[in-house]
Design a protein that fits this description.
Blueprint lengths: L8 H5 L9 E3 H8 L3 H9 L7 E2 L5 E4 H10 L7
Antiparallel strand pairs: 1-3, 2-3
Length: 80
């Protein structure tokens, strides 16, 4: 039995108590926010994405907390 079950990115979306320091992979970040990897790459390249951390020479990640801050910063007001 796996002591650390995988948490899907979609599950994170609905779990406000998840640790803000938990690292999301680039793929998890894209899945969590509902867009493709190419859209994620465009957001990062244009400077409109959250701050990512270089995990290794080939991998980058973003914390749950940074993703939440990024989402709040992109919030728009809707007409009532």
């Amino acid at each position: 039995m796996n002591a650390h079950p995988e948490v899907t990115a979609r599950a994170l979306l609905h779990h406000a108590g998840i640790d803000d320091d938990r690292m999301l992979t680039f793929a998890e970040w894209c899945q969590l926010n509902g867009f493709s990897a190419s859209t994620g790459q465009r957001l990062i390249a244009s400077g409109q994405g959250p701050v990512f951390v270089k995990l290794s020479t080939r991998r980058k990640g973003v914390t749950v907390g940074e993703n939440r801050r990024w989402q709040r910063a992109r919030a728009i007001e809707t007409a009532a």
